[in-house]
Design a protein that fits this description.
The structure is a single chain. The chain is mostly helical and 1009 residues long. Among the domains are: 2-147, Winged helix-like DNA-binding domain superfamily/Winged helix DNA-binding domain (Arc Repressor Mutant, subunit A, Orthogonal Bundle), CATH 1.10.10; 165-236, Serine Threonine Protein Phosphatase 5, Tetratricopeptide repeat (Alpha Horseshoe); 258-390, P-loop containing nucleotide triphosphate hydrolases (Rossmann fold, 3-Layer(aba) Sandwich); 403-491; 500-576, Winged helix-like DNA-binding domain superfamily/Winged helix DNA-binding domain (Arc Repressor Mutant, subunit A, Orthogonal Bundle), CATH 1.10.10; 878-1006, no CATH class. The protein has 48 helices and 14 strands. The protein has a 5-stranded parallel β-sheet, sandwiched between helices. It has a 3-stranded mixed β-sheet with strand order 2-1-6. It has a 3-stranded antiparallel β-sheet with strand order 3-5-4. Helix 15 links the parallel strand 9 and strand 10. Helix 38 runs antiparallel to helix 39 (789-805) and helix 39 (789-805) runs antiparallel to helix 40 (809-825). The N and C termini lie far apart (87 Å).
């Protein structure tokens, strides 16, 4: 329990909940015990204090009754009988805490620390000490002593705040205390000094005279020597430090800037000049005002209305007028007069960008006199000792973010607050979250633009507003009438910045709008030079535009990069004339076509990672430049490596023979059915031998995965022969890696291993890490089929690491699934599920349907083997339809086998027989003996379940022959299914239901059944 006597008697639980203490005498008993907390109060004394001369018939019994009631209220363990009376044990009392804090303040050096401790101590007081009991004899002395301690603490507190320069607010706070205690000289002295230093010297002199009259009339005394000396100081001091206008009180709450406020205040605590820079509308002024509100004394001077020709002295005069400063008795320069007034205060100079030179000169002189300055500007002041704080735009949610994440973004919080004010009842919900997020992204998270957009919600709604932002300068208008004209529309905000630029700066800025997502310095120099701007000048002009917060500079591995906010880019596009826009479009396309062609020569060698990264960064520019056959040809391999198959399919839809071939390959890889013979025709139509060899490899790769295997084998063979004729080591390696897969599917494990090993060696030789991973994946599959799971894990891990280094996330997904399969074969279902889950997430994130299928089939394998049959079937059935859509028999055969095993284990014999029969048909079409064997084994289990053990035995025998023909042992995961089937078969044999020789061996004609 906690107890309070510094005000009305109060009791609280440890969590701050008030505790009611009923009856006046019970409360008086508690107050008496709290006069000297922790000390025993005799029973006789308590009786005397509670009843006086009006004693009850049984004083001892009456006291015990009150004690019992007090114990019920606050806890029996707190009120203890201890001869000769009672004691309140271990109480936490606010008067004790007050004494501890005032003692600590006496030991604290430094005005700041002392003021903080005393502020906490005085904050404990809720009114007069022992209010309600202060006239009772038992409490009056204690209450008077506490009041004296309180006044002494106030005097110490006031003197500490005077040292800190907190004059204006202190003068007001001391007024009531001085009125209550007009003859306390130390308190009066503190009040007089606060009034004088706040510029209210006349009031201070009047206060001294009032005290002098009181002393003389009531006590017949004169003021002390200290007060008389203070009076003399007031008479001779120049009244220059007057009260200045307070900071403006913003009409709305600041949203999303908590960290920025704390950061700027911390910076101001260490440095005397801080400049907030950022683009127009980002909220520099609002942030500066909020920061300044935490200072002891701060004043704001708005500079936006001043003409550009303003001088330093003119600027000082304007500031002095805004602060209400009049000339003193001594003639001084405007700057000196301003500096004297600002000593110890924080000066906020708002909107400095158009008169930055005189502002810089004034600030330099003010800093020399000890002033602190917080400036807002669209460019730095460039003064020694300046520390910049770039005010960022508010954070916006990424595309596709769930509603909960959308609501956490600062830009959305501001939009929601302002839209609710303009349209009562508005709230961000699951229905409008994506539209709101889009609006905030489209306006770059700029607070002013967000507020202008929010004001339109009442008329347009969020969906229509989002669509109309394509013409943002027509929509984002109609700001508050009390705002400056430059802040009432988005166009006006940018007009203000544009008008401050030189013609050369305007030329470079508007031409930067030709780029999407920024550009390198080399690209900027290429496109922005001309019409009076020399190429060597571009860097300096870019630097100046960065300083003016119109261009955003970032740093990448390839050097500096320059970009525009979307709103700035849209504004600059409006400044381009038709002829200049056409020239820029052509120059932009030419520049990025050359870049893509150069990159294509490096994407199959040791610099693969570097050039993939360069093209990643330029994705926006490459998409903007598309429209030329040269560029599309240069990008096909990049699109393939990055898994951007849908984008590639759209971009390669062309009559150009090379692009037509790649287009068909991309169609296959995205699951779109293609005429089986089309890849052969398209391949033959390409004239250039190197282009034909590469396209042939790609078509063979795509057909191997999702097309006709004989066609794929023909294409791959031609690509391999052409690459060998061209002495193209990379082309040979690529063709071999695909042929290794084909031979693996056909059951030629020896040939597959030879191709994969040679492919990997050639890829190693040319330095292509992607290719090493491809060949390693085949070697991993071969190790898996050989039962060498340790080697298989090593190969697949290496492939995953190589792909991850290159950020080839679809390949990482496939490698994770391969590792999941190994974990599954080893019986570690937990690890298998974790790996397949990661693979699925990567595939979904990057739109890789094939990777998602491979991962979810792996999850289904685990689910079926652990008895979660419904989960397995739900995962498998959509992918069965997907595989059947483009006749991918390999995938369909495996899925049908798994669905059949699930049906068996559920006891559904007809479904199991049907599914395994379908699976056997698909497996036979693949020509893969292992797939056929698995289907035969599954069908055997289904026949057993259907009561046909004789037919089951024949199927198992045929499967065994096929297994032997592959030269690879049965994987452990499948071994479990076959063991189960064979156990059932042996049980049938032992029961005599079939004879040992019944339907064993090959089927009719000597072929496997």
């Amino acid at each position: 329990m906690r107890f309070g006597v510094l005000g009305p008697l109060a009791v609280w639980t440890p969590d701050g909940t008030p505790v009611a203490v009923p009856e006046a005498r019970v409360r008086a008993l508690l107050a008496s015990l709290l006069v000297a907390p922790g000390r025993v109060v005799s029973a006789d004394r308590l009786v005397d204090e509670l009843w006086g001369e009006a004693l009850p018939a049984n004083p001892s019994g009456a006291l015990q009754t009150l004690v019992s009631r007090l114990r019920r209220a606050i806890g029996a363990e707190l009120v203890v009988r201890r001869p000769p009376g009672y004691v309140l044990t271990a109480p936490s009392v606010d008067s004790t805490r007050f004494a501890e804090l005032t003692a600590l303040a006496q030991r604290t050096s430094g005005a700041t620390g002392k003021a903080e401790v005393l502020a906490e101590a005085l904050g404990l007081w809720r009114g007069d000490a022992f209010a309600g009991f202060s006239d009772e004899p038992f409490a009056s002395a204690a209450a008077a002593a506490l009041e004296e301690q309180r006044l002494a603490a106030w005097e110490d507190y006031a003197e500490a705040r005077l040292q800190l320069g907190d004059h204006t607010s202190l003068a007001g706070e001391l007024h009531a205390l001085v009125e209550q205690h007009p003859l306390r000289e130390r308190l009066r002295a503190a009040h007089l000094r606060a009034l004088h230093r706040a510029g209210r010297t006349a009031e201070a002199l009047e206060g001294y005279d009032a005290m002098r009259r009181l002393l003389r009339d009531e006590l017949g005394l004169d003021p002390s020597a200290d007060l008389a000396a203070l009076h003399e100081e007031l008479l001779t001091a120049e009244p220059v430090r007057r009260r200045i206008p307070s900071l403006p009180v913003p009409p709305t709450e600041l949203v999303g800037r908590e960290r920025a406020v704390a950061g700027v205040r911390a910076l101001l605590g260490a440095h005397r000049l801080v400049t907030l820079i950022g683009p127009g509308g980002v909220g520099k002024t609002r942030l500066a005002v909020e920061v300044a509100r935490g200072a002891d004394e701060a004043c704001l001077v708005e500079l936006a209305a001043l003409p550009r020709e303003t001088t330093v002295d003119g600027l000082a005069d304007v500031a002095a007028t805004a602060l209400g400063i009049r000339d003193g008795s001594r003639p001084r320069s405007p700057v000196d007069r301003l500096a004297e007034v600002l000593r110890g205060r924080l000066l906020v100079l708002d909107n400095c960008e158009h008169i930055v030179e005189p502002v810089a000169a004034l600030v330099h002189r003010l800093l020399a006199t000890g002033a602190h300055v917080l400036a807002t500007s669209r460019e730095p002041l460039g003064v020694s000792g300046e520390h910049l704080w770039e005010v960022p735009t508010l954070d916006v949610p990424p595309p596709g973010a769930p509603p909960a994440d959308v609501l956490r973004a600062g830009a959305v919080q501001l939009f929601a607050a302002r839209a609710a004010a303009a349209s009562p009842g508005f709230a961000v919900s699951a229905d409008n979250a994506e539209a709101v997020a889009t609006i905030c992204r489209r306006v770059d998270g700029i607070p002013l633009a967000i507020e202008l957009a929010a004001a339109r919600v009442r008329v347009l709604g969020t969906a229509e507003l989002s669509e109309r932002l394509n013409d943002r300068f027509a929509v984002l208008t109609g700001g508050p009438r009390d705002a400056p004209p430059r802040q009432r529309t988005l166009g006006a905000v940018l007009d203000w910045s544009w008008e401050l630029l030189t013609e050369a700066e305007r030329t470079v800025l508007r031409r930067l709008a030709a780029f999407a997502d920024g550009c390198t310095l080399a690209a900027a120099e290429t496109l922005c030079a001309g019409d009076g701007v020399q190429r060597p000048q571009v860097l300096d002009l870019l630097t100046r535009l960065v300083d003016r917060s119109l261009v955003v500079a970032s740093h990448t591995a390839d050097g500096p990069r320059y970009s525009l906010l979307e709103s700035v880019s849209a504004y600059c596009e409006r400044q381009l004339g038709p002829e200049e826009r056409d020239r820029l479009r052509q120059a932009h396309a030419a520049y990025f076509t050359e870049l893509a062609e150069e990159a294509a020569t490096h994407l199959c060698g040791p610099e693969q990672q570097k050039w993939l990264g360069r093209l990643d960064i330029e994705t926006g520019n490459l998409r903007r430049a598309l429209g030329d056959v040269r560029l599309a040809r240069a990008l096909v391999w990049y699109w393939f490596l990055r898994g951007r198959l849908i984008e590639a399919r759209r971009a390669t839809e062309s009559a150009d023979p090379v692009l037509a071939a790649w287009h068909t390959g991309f169609r296959l890889l995205t699951g779109e059915p293609v005429d089986n013979r089309a890849p052969l025709r398209l391949h033959a139509a390409i004239a250039d031998p190197r282009e034909r060899a590469l396209a042939g490899w790609f078509l063979g790769y795509a057909a191997t995965r999702f097309g006709d295997l004989p066609v794929a084998e023909e294409l791959t063979g031609e690509a391999l022969a052409a690459s060998e004729e061209l002495s193209d080591g990379w082309g040979i390696a690529a063709a071999l890696s695909v042929r290794a897969v084909q031979r693996h599917v056909r059951g030629d494990l020896t040939g597959s291993a030879a191709d994969a090993e040679r492919s990997r060696a050639l890829f190693e030789e040319v330095g292509d890490r992607w290719g090493r991973g491809q060949a390693g994946t085949v070697l991993g599959k071969l190790a898996e089929f050989a039962g060498d799971y340790a080697a298989a894990t090593t190969w697949h891990r290496e492939a995953a690491e190589l792909a991850e280094e290159l950020a080839l996330w679809p390949d990482v997904s496939m490698s994770c699934s391969e590792l999941g399969r190994i974990a599954l074969l080893q019986g570690d279902h937990t690890a298998a599920d974790e790996l397949h889950d990661r693979a699925r997430a990567l595939a979904i994130e990057h739109g890789d349907a094939a990777g998602q299928e491979f991962a979810e089939v792996g999850l289904a394998l685990s689910a079926r083997r652990t008895g979660r049959f419904a989960e397995a079937e739900n995962l498998l059935r959509p992918w069965l339809a997907w595989n059947q859509r483009f006749e991918a028999d390999n995938g369909a055969a495996l899925i049908l086998a798994e669905l059949g095993f699930a049906a068996e284990q559920r006891g559904d014999a007809p479904a199991a027989v049907d599914l395994h029969a379908q699976g056997l048909a698909a497996a036979r079409r693949t020509g893969d003996p292992r797939a056929v064997a698995l289907a035969l084994e599954g069908l055997a289990g289904a026949r057993l379940l259907a009561g046909q053990p004789g037919r089951a035995r024949g199927l198992l025998a045929s499967a065994a022959l096929l297994r032997e023909s592959t030269g690879a042992p049965l994987p452990t995961a499948e071994r479990g299914d076959v063991d189960r089937i064979e156990e059932l078969l042996n049980s049938a044999l032992s029961s005599g239901r079939i004879r040992a020789g019944s339907r064993s061996g090959p089927g009719r004609g000597g072929r496997p059944g």
